[in-house]
Design goal:
Low-confidence stretches: none
Mean pLDDT: 84
Strand content: under 5%
Order of helices and strands: HHHHHHHHHHHHHH
Helix content: over 70%
Number of helices: 14
Shape: globular
Length: 276
């Protein structure tokens, strides 16, 4: 069978080589712009004193969810990460995750809404989304590294590819499950398609959309260590460093910081009524 092997890999490599030759300037500009955005956001977060950031985050959690237990958990988690010496790495990871989530939402929500209104679109999207979630993330790093070079940007792009399926799927699911009676009632009152979308469908699908955003955050955090392999700063770097040196203590502390940040973001971005 080796004599009849399809040169699929060679075709893909040829395509990316052609892409680099044709659009190298575009990818370089995109890489510089995204890296500047993430670095600037990290600098702003690091400019805030850790104590002030913890107070602000705790106050935001209390205002959003009216939960004193959540307030205590957020404050203790942030204080522990600060005490362990991973504050700067946490802010770098936070910037990466927030930008990845923001871009996933900006791209995923319109795609999910369009797919819900045009079933043929979701028929095409479904195998693509399955492929994006099942292909090992390391495979994403190869072409993104070729197009964008070392740094935070290939990690960001790979994270988006891996995480965007969640908001697309759950937005599609939420819009598709809106009762037809509600839509027909809006139409009977003369509502336009945009009014039906903003006043009926999106509010009715809010819980699914919120779940998609939360899943997107968790999937983005799961890529932190992998993104560190291509030069992305953050909590993934000490984990990779600990793995290379078999440093159990540092690996456990950095891993604990990732877990605490993931739980804090998960609780913050859940719908208020779902937080106990």
């Amino acid at each position: 069978m080796e004599n009849y092997k399809l040169p699929l890999g060679e075709y893909i490599e040829f395509f990316f080589d052609w892409l680099v030759d044709v659009a190298a300037g575009f990818f370089d500009a995109m890489s510089v712009s995204l890296e500047w955005l993430i670095t600037s956001s990290t600098d702003v977060l690091l400019w805030l004193p850790p104590a002030l950031f913890i107070v602000f985050l705790g106050g935001f959690a209390l205002w959003l969810h009216r939960s004193w237990s959540l307030l205590v958990f957020v404050v203790i988690s942030m204080l522990l990460i600060w005490n362990l010496g991973y504050w700067q790495e946490m802010m770098q990871t936070l910037s990466l995750v927030l930008y990845a989530t923001l871009l996933c939402v900006l791209l995923g929500l319109p795609i999910g809404i369009y797919a819900a209104h045009h079933p043929w679109m979701y028929t095409i999207l479904r195998p693509i989304l399955d492929l994006m979630q099942t292909v090992p993330p390391f495979v994403y790093l190869i072409p993104t590294l070729t197009l964008f070079g070392l740094g935070v940007v290939p990690g960001l792009i790979s994270t988006i590819i891996f995480a965007i399926a969640a908001p697309v799927r759950l937005t599609y699911l939420g819009i598709s499950e809106v009762p037809k009676e509600m839509v027909e009632a809006g139409q009977s009152f003369g509502a336009t398609r945009s009014q039906i979308l903003w006043r009926i469908e999106l509010p009715a699908a809010a819980s699914n959309i919120a779940a998609g955003i939360t899943q997107c955050i968790m999937l983005s955090l799961s890529m932190v260590v992998i993104a560190a392999l291509v030069g992305a700063d953050g909590l993934g770097k000490p984990v990779v460093r600990a793995l290379n040196t078999v440093d159990i203590a540092s690996g456990f502390e950095a891993g604990l910081a990732i877990v605490l940040l993931a739980i804090v973001l998960d609780r913050l971005f859940k719908q208020p009524e779902t937080v106990k």
